[in-house]
Write a structure and sequence with these properties.
Layout lengths: L4 E2 L1 H7 L18 E6 L7 E10 L15 E5 L14 H4 L11 E15 L15 E6 L1 E8 L2 E8 L1 E7 H15 L7 E6 L6 E6 L5 E4 L2 E4 L5 H6 L6 H7 L3 H7 L4 E3 L5 E3 L14 H17 L24 E2 L2
Parallel strand pairs: 6-16
Antiparallel strand pairs: 1-3, 2-5, 2-10, 3-4, 3-5, 5-6, 5-9, 7-8, 10-11, 12-13, 14-15
């Protein structure tokens, strides 16, 4: 298994520079919101370089799914975690969209449980008449999954645990701030809303409640990974390292991206005989362009203000929100 970079510090540093279909990923559309309980501590977040929105190959013959994806993300095979494992990265080496090389960027991986609002019904157990129709707390969401048990397909109700695979700057860096403030990211729920649908997308993230405690043998215990109650409650067979590795391997690239390779009916990866345009030798170095742009911006910032008083540098906005006091209801 590759050695992945873990933790918020690794994510911040990196930001500077058929099992596939069964993985449930966290996803929001513009304007949508959700409540999440993160179950992966900040120091266990995994950071890898990834390619985003890469055009896929045509669906294979005999494909019976609902819709073959037109674009997908992929883990870069040149990430340092795979050093010595792969000899190439198709997306780094070839013009996959006929335009320019699609370079990777840092993305962070973690697990979270989708939480559901509990609405008061007027009963004393749910806050009495005063809380009828209001949010009195949250509970772990569930979903139905069909799995093979002893060679038989069995439908089970499981906790709605999802894989969160997002960027550092507009998502995980915000959570890292809360982790630094509270000492952990797993002791409360977070309300998350997506704003935007293009490259300017941002995520509003605020705590949804105070630290959550449960009664265990008459003693209040904070839900945290160091507590066996937490570990038992969010036990899962989802393995982030395996999922990440699958999205970099030969089969994944051959199935969705690499036109030089194909997958036989027996599941073997073989050459397709197709040639693809290689990276042009005179391609502009984007890192160099960014460096030049930064120097120009720095020079501009040092120039005197215009006559109208504008400084030519856009200020930063700050936002804050207060958390409610809803309780954990399971």
């Amino acid at each position: 298994m590759p050695s992945f970079r873990k933790g918020a510090a690794a994510a911040a540093e990196a930001s500077k520079g058929a099992q596939f279909a069964r993985t449930n990923f966290f996803k929001l559309e513009d304007g949508e919101s959700i409540i999440l309980r993160f179950i992966t501590p900040a120091d266990e977040w995994i950071t890898v370089q990834q390619h985003q929105m890469i055009p896929t190959k045509d669906a294979p013959k005999g494909y019976k799914g609902d819709q073959w994806p037109e674009r997908m993300g992929a883990v870069c095979r040149r990430d340092e975690a795979f050093s010595g494992l792969y000899d190439d990265c198709y997306i780094c080496d070839f013009l996959v969209d006929g335009n320019k090389i699609r370079k990777p960027g840092a993305r962070v991986w973690a697990l979270a449980c989708i939480r559901e609002e509990v609405i008061g019904d007027g009963s004393e157990d749910l806050g009495g008449p005063a809380m009828k129709g209001k949010v009195v707390g949250y509970k772990d969401g569930t979903r139905e999954e069909t799995r093979k048990v002893d060679d038989k397909e069995v439908t089970q109700t499981v906790k709605n645990i999802v894989v969160v695979n997002m960027g550092w700057r507009n998502f995980f860096s915000v959570l890292d701030g809360f982790a630094a403030r509270y000492g952990t990211i797993t002791d409360r729920d977070y309300w998350i809303k997506r704003v935007g649908s293009t490259t300017d997308t941002t995520y509003q993230i605020v705590p949804a409640n105070e630290p959550i405690a449960v009664d265990v043998n008459g003693e209040a215990v904070t839900l945290d990974p160091t507590n066996p109650v937490f570990a038992d409650r969010y036990k899962t067979d989802i393995n982030l390292e395996e999922i990440i590795t699958e999205r970099s391997n030969d089969e994944f690239y051959a199935r969705f991206f690499d036109r030089r390779m194909t997958i036989t009916d027996e599941g073997k990866v073989e050459s397709s005989g197709v040639e693809v345009p290689a990276k042009p030798e005179n391609e502009v170095d984007e890192d160099m362009l960014k460096s030049i742009t930064q120097r120009v911006k720095s020079y501009k910032a040092e120039m005197p203000a215009d006559e109208d008083g504008s400084e030519g540098v856009e200020g930063e906005r700050e936002a804050s929100a207060s958390a409610g006091a809803a309780v954990d209801l399971g």
